[in-house]
Write a structure and sequence with these properties.
Elements lengths: L9 E4 L1 H5 L9 H12 L5 E6 L12 H7 L7 E5 L3 H9 L4 E7 L2 H8 L3 H17 L3 E7 L12 H13 L4 E6 L6 H12 L7 E5 L6 H10 L4 E4 L19 H11 L7 H15 L6 H15 L10
Parallel strand pairs: 1-2, 1-8, 2-3, 3-4, 4-5, 5-6, 6-7, 7-8
Helix pairs in contact: 2-11, 8-9, 10-11
Length: about 325
């Protein structure tokens, strides 16, 4: 089956938003912009920069307006921000964003804790948000969380996620990112979920947003790839998690994802060397070792070569 997989994919970088929102370290606006610029240098074409939520919800992203206004726009790179309501959309517009995303949960308990809305309430509230975004000429994306499982309710019927995804597409979202918020997904489960989705929604309108809490994110991505999906979310260095999902570890690391695709001959357009450099920068800014496996392997190999005198250290001439 691997001989029939897509030959090119899009990697959606979510580290500056989904990654940083769950980190204890509070980066300065300048540091965030430095990281985003480093990510853009890698060849990534889609970068989730921030979220226009209330600072009371996510204090780590309280500088969303400043981040959005400070972005160094470059051809071929789309910067996106999350908006929870009409006020968030207005802030995003005023800050110059031309792409936004709305987000909700398949499970009502997680939805109440995350955005203070059940699934039905969230879908109703986004009717006006999406209509206004379309009127302004913005690109819209939709996020559906807890598709593979909820930290409060356990397994979530796929029909709920499918209903959410289908409705967001009707409201004008160009693509729906399906989230394994707590990283419980396994390949057979992923096959069943995506099979139900693909029976109603074309593969090009679906993306996967996998967390690697239990080490199965890449295995699940491979299932999605085999089923024809071509967009996958990931976070530099494996940054992040979900502040409303107890025990959720970081996202799938962008370097791990790109390394797997590279080894399979699947084109991403991303320079893995530059991506490691961006991961190293993220690690320095956060002030702790990140979970990305390829990142740590690459940094470890460089340190080994430097200790043997086979590679110069940074700053040496």
């Amino acid at each position: 089956m691997l001989d029939r997989i897509p030959q090119r994919v899009t990697v959606y970088e979510v580290g500056p938003r989904d990654g940083l929102q769950n980190e204890r370290a509070r980066l300065t606006t300048a540091s965030k912009l430095e990281l985003i610029a480093a990510l853009a240098d890698t060849g990534l074409t889609h970068i989730e920069a921030t979220s226009f939520v209330s600072p009371k919800w996510i204090p780590q992203l309280s500088d969303a307006d400043e981040v959005a206004k400070g972005l160094q726009r470059r051809p071929g790179v789309t910067y996106l921000a999350l908006v929870p309501n009409e006020r968030g959309l207005e802030r995003a517009r005023e800050a110059g964003m031309d792409a936004v995303a709305v987000f909700l949960s398949s499970s009502d308990t997680h939805g109440r804790k995350n955005i203070a809305k059940t699934l039905d309430e969230a879908l109703a509230s986004y009717e006006l948000v999406c209509a206004e975004g379309l009127r302004l000429g913005m690109h819209l994306r939709g996020y559906v969380s807890t598709v593979w499982g909820c930290p409060y309710e356990g397994p979530v019927p796929v029909e709920r996620s499918l209903r959410a995804a289908a409705r967001l597409l009707e409201l004008g979202c160009e693509q729906i990112s399906l989230g394994d918020t707590i990283g419980v997904g396994t390949p057979r489960q992923t096959e069943a979920i995506l099979g139900a989705m693909l029976a109603r929604i074309p593969a090009r309108q679906l993306a996967m947003h996998m967390h690697d809490t239990r080490g199965t994110a890449l295995a699940n991505v491979l299932v999605g790839l085999q089923l024809g999906l071509t967009t996958f979310d990931a976070s530099v260095g494996g940054l992040g998690g979900c502040p409303y999902a107890p025990g959720a570890a970081g996202n799938l690391a962008t370097e791990d994802l790109v390394y797997m695709f590279l080894g399979m001959g699947v084109e991403t357009g991303i320079d893995l060397v530059k991506l490691v450099a961006a991961g190293e920068l993220a690690q320095e800014l956060i002030g702790r070792k990140l979970s990305g496996k390829y990142l740590q392997a690459a940094l470890g190999e460089r340190e080994r070569l430097q200790s043997q005198g086979k590679l110069k250290k940074r700053g040496e001439t």
